[in-house]
Amino acid sequence: MIRAIHHAAISTGNLERALAFYRDVLGFEVLVDAGWPSGTELVDRITGLKDSSARWVVLKVGNAIIELFQYESPPPKQGDPNRRVCDHGIAHISLDVTDVDAEYERLRAAGMTFHCPPQNLGTAVRTTYGRDPDGNVIELHEVLEPESPFALDLK
User: Does 8-73 match 93-143 in CATH topology?
Assistant: First the structure.
């Protein structure tokens, strides 16, 4: 039985830059900062890679966990920081916020780029999309009606 999404993982070419964004700008707490050397058979079996090595950081805020990976080997292909949200792959990571307008202003002042200011989706949700330093789309999502099916139970 599937209970919930546990985490999202992001591969980056600059872990320090990504970590500074998720930890220092978005406020995630670092739970794990580790890695593995090339030739770690178990990790290669799980990832389907050969002779992989990487640094791995696990971060958490509220009930959201994000893993950041910077692979040293095999050499990764660079992602497209301007990939459109309609292109195949993970479209975005959504963060539940209590004041989308305040977060939008705070993050914009910190250098985060956004597609637009926060928008109303009917009466239940207010949202906007922005980009992390690698171009991954981060949604700021405020549920305005506690009884909405979009409301999270964070107990």
Answer: yes
CA distance 72 to 100: 36
User: SS in 3 state form for 27-92?
Assistant: CCEEEEEEEECCCCHHHHHHHCCCCCEEEEEEEEECCEEEEEEEEEECCCCCCCCCCCCCCCCCCC
What CATH topology corresponds to 8-73?
Answer: 2,3-Dihydroxybiphenyl 1,2-Dioxygenase; domain 1 (3.10.180)
User: What whole-number distance in Å separates Cα of residue 62 and Cα of residue 40?
Assistant: 32
> Any idea where the domains of the chain sit in the sequence?
8-73, 93-143
Burial of residue 106, with CB atoms counted within 10 A of its CB: 0-12 exposed, 13-18 middle, 19 or more buried:
middle
Read off the pLDDT of residues 101-145 as tens digits, 9 standing for 90 and up: 999 999 999 999 999 999 988 788 888 999 999 999 999 989 887
Quote the pTM value: 0.81
Question: 3-state DSSP call for residue 101?
Answer: helix
Rounded Cα distance between 45 and 47, Å, is 6
CATH 3.40.50.450 given to domain 93-143: no
The partner residues of 59 in beta bridges, in order of sequence, read 30, 66
